[in-house]
Amino acid sequence: MRWIALPAGIVILVFTLFDVFRTLVMPRAARGRFRLSRMLFQPLWRPWRWIGVRRKTVQGRERVLATAAPFFFFVLLVGWVSLALLGYALILWSPAFVHGIGAGGGSFGNALYSSGTSLFTLGFGGGVATGWTRAIAVAEGATGLGLFAVVIAYLPVLYQAFNRREVGVLLLDTRPGSPPSGPELLHRMGSAGVASAALPEFFAEWERWVADVLETHMSYPLLALFRSPHDNTSWVISLGSVLDAATLILTAVEDEPTERAKLLYGTGVHAVEDLFYYFRLSERETLIQRDEFDDVLRDMKNDGFSVRPVDEAFARFTEKRAKYAPRLDAIAVLLAAPPGLWIGDRSFLGARTAH
Residues 6 or more apart from 188 whose CB is under 8 A from it? Predict the structure, then answer.
């Protein structure tokens, strides 16, 4: 049976190194059913989320959920190291290399120990490798150094992207409040008399923010699990609020400049679609009550916006919002984001996590 150890070890090692390459090095989303990150995400995040959303306070929920992403990354690193260790151990235990291990005998336990000392560059503790086994020991030492070097280089990139995302979320917090919402954003700008002048620049700024979130979160999907350090804020809800604001301008307002809103809407829909399909989710039904929309339109009219007739505006808004809202809502529920006005599971999370 020992003859199968060599091909099995090679398969495990190739799978591990390719998974590290796709996850940390390749600048695009790693897809496929057989990925270590995907295998760990389902069994770890679902129960973690279940425990987190059932905490009695917002602080308790966020304390539990905020530790998930760093912990998952640590587990992922341990998984890569363990698989590499096992793969090299099987190779060393195979008939082709077991006799070159040195002192300690040809048991699998001794091969595993020798693999560990090489991977962590400790050197052989039980003897000196001989023959072609020395090449395996050198390759394993290089693998260990390379693996940890890539991880160390990956962390600054990850946290820089997180910082850029959260700067935008924090700046939005000062405009529509927290959790943010599109109608509240338009209400505050309209009541201050700055909507016509400020909205195009605001939409342009958020178009760049959305594009950056799409690029970084598709390249490093673990970023999606990193939660905002501020109360009642989330990148998902922030994205939904600015998309709702742009959609309201495009469908409910007659004389406002809409070019920037169109560009933001297009970029936002693209981002939501890509992230939705990456996480392989199912769309959620999102219904906005007619009387709720009527109240929003009435406030916009009072704030100085030239609004369309209610029936026309509601039909246009519902049609255009359907292109992103069911998918964005699914992402928000998956990540247990603090519910906003029209995004997230308000019926469950809001009731369970009230102060």
Answer: 175, 176
Q: Where are the domains of the chain?
A: 2-151, 175-352
Q: Dihedral (C-alpha) 222, 275, 289, 342: value to the nearest 10 degrees?
A: 30
298 pLDDT band (50/70/90 cuts)? very high
Q: How does the average pLDDT of the chain come out, rounded? A: 86
Tokens 């673990």 correspond to 222
Query: Residue 281 — left, alpha, or beta (φ > 0 → left; ψ -120 to 50 → alpha)?
Result: beta
CB 326 within 8 A of CB 284: yes
- Following DSSP, what letter does each residue of 319-334 receive, concatenated? HHHTTTHHHHHHHHHH
Burial group, residue 102, by CB count within 10 angstroms (0-12, 13-18, 19+): middle
Residue 215 burial (10 A CB sphere; 0-12, 13-18, 19+): middle
Q: How confident is the model at residue 350 (pLDDT cuts 50, 70, 90)?
A: very low
- Residue 319 CA to residue 315 CA, distance in Å, equals 6
Q: Counting every residue, how long is the chain?
A: 355
Cβ partners under 8 Å of residue 303, min gap 6: 186, 187, 190, 191, 195
Cβ atoms 9, 91 nearer than 8 A: yes
What is the structure's pLDDT at 74?
92
pTM to 2 decimal places: 0.85
Per-residue model confidence (pLDDT) at position 107: 82
244-257: average pLDDT: 87
CA distance 231 to 233: 6
Measured in whole angstroms, the distance separating CA 55 from the mean position of its chain's CA atoms is: 22
pLDDT at 158 over 50: yes
Per-residue pLDDT at 349 exceeds 90: no
Cα gap 233→227, rounded to integer Å? 9
**No. of H helices and E strands in the chain?**
14, 0
